[in-house]
Amino acid sequence: MKSPKERIIETTFQLFARQGYNSTGINQIISEAEVARASFYQYFKSKEDLCVEFLNVRHEYWFGELNNFLAKEKNPKSKIIKAFDFLVYMNEKENFRGCSFLNILSEIPMDNIKILSVIQSHKVDLRNFFLELMNDDILSDHIYMLFESSIIESQLFRSNELIEKSKKIVTNLI
Predict the structure, then answer these.
(1) Is residue 30 very low, low, confident or very high in pLDDT (cuts 50, 70, 90)?
(2) Are 98 and 160 in contact (CB under 8 A)?
(3) Fewer CB in a 10 Å sphere around the end CB: N or C, the chain?
């Protein structure tokens, strides 16, 4: 049996994915998570606080999945190439839902520093992931940009075509 907090986070993921951040209300989350209002407010002061926690949980989950997916790869170049296969894997697993962080970014005002900083932190970690593998900031940023744009384009067109093309480009680059 999942705890009320786990049910709230899981329900939040489903609702944000289906209808977006702005169209999802606290009352709907409480109802669909089957938790008491007091339980919700015991864990979260506001929808904004819930969003921050959701993004933090999503960050841990996403990097955990990525690292598990790449665990058998021994050298940095094969990890980078296989990272593009991870995007295909996630698209199949989550039905082209795209990046939770960018999806929410598109819905919040840019002065929402609380949520914006969590999104920026996730992207900095991803950028650093490639930098640590390549040890070349120009090349690693090029790969990062191809990776990020692959996520967006695959969500937009519900297709892995540009992920595969980006993977070929990266293979030639490195």
Answers:
(1) very high
(2) no
(3) N
Q: How far is the CA of 19 from the CAs of 25, 95, 115, in angstroms?
A: 10, 14, 18
Nearest to 158 by CA among 107, 103, 111, 88: 88
Instruction: State the Cα–Cα distance between residues 114 and 6, nearest whole angstrom.
Output: 22
What is the C-alpha separation between 46 and 92, in angstroms, rounded? 32
Q: Distance of CA 4 to CAs 21, 37, 38, 144, Å?
A: 20, 11, 11, 36
pTM: 0.93
Can you list the positions of beta strands (E) in 15-108? none
In this structure, what token pair is assigned to residue 29?
Answer: 């989350």
- pLDDT for 94-118, tens place per residue? 999 999 999 999 999 999 999 999 9
